[in-house]
Design a protein that fits this description.
With 181 residues, this protein is an alpha+beta fold. It has 5 helices and 8 strands, in the order βαααββββαβαββ. Helices cover 25% and strands 29% of the residues. Helix 4 (118-127) links the parallel strand 5 (101-109) and strand 6 (134-139). An 8-stranded mixed β-sheet has the order 1-2-3-5-6-8-7-4.
């Protein structure tokens, strides 16, 4: 990873103070990804996710500039995370209890800072702090750079999922065991 980049863990309450910066990094990272990636939609996503029990984030800073982050939360018994899953999923795969699966919702790095090991450092820092059995994430099948990174980091594809929100794309579902510290 680049020198002079520091990582910092954030709770939801702490992240509220940098909400505008979180949105700015998200929009920068997805600048060429189409109409789904708007400030309004993402602000709504954050507003829905941040109150979830156990929400956690790791941010990357270069001086006073937020350059990337990862966030997620444990999936509770009432989760809708798996709604829309497709494929041959083993029995019990989507059963959650708040301690089984950590759902990774976003991993973004500003375009000018990509391909410098920052995403990997963010990923490893957050995964290393989790106590759940596994982690899960959704990735667009056309996002070759993310697909390649997730392959290298040990994430396994397990199916496809189309969320229920309007205009939702079809995502690939990936999981990874979380190794205890």
């Amino acid at each position: 990873m680049v020198q002079n980049v520091r990582l910092r863990h954030y709770s939801a309450a702490e992240a509220e103070k940098v909400l505008t910066q979180l949105v700015d990094v998200y929009l920068d990272a997805h600048a060429d990804d189409g109409s789904l990636y708007t400030a309004e939609r993402y602000e709504g996503q954050l507003a829905a996710h941040m109150p979830r029990p156990g929400w956690a984030s790791v941010t990357a800073w270069a001086g006073d500039e937020l350059i990337g982050y990862i966030y997620g939360f444990p999936l509770g018994a009432d989760t809708r995370w798996w709604d829309g899953i497709q494929g041959s999923i083993p029995s019990g795969f989507t059963d959650e209890n708040g301690r089984r699966t950590f759902g990774v919702s976003e991993l973004v790095v500003r375009c000018s800072w990509q391909r410098r090991g920052i995403a990997r450092a963010l990923h490893d820092e957050l995964m290393g702090s989790r106590a759940e059995e596994r982690a899960a994430l959704l990735v667009r099948p056309d996002n070759a750079a993310a697909q390649h990174a997730y392959d290298a980091w040990g994430w396994q594809p397990v199916g496809r999922l189309r969320p229920s929100w309007d205009g939702a794309p079809l995502f690939e579902v990936r999981t990874k065991p979380i190794m205890p510290n």
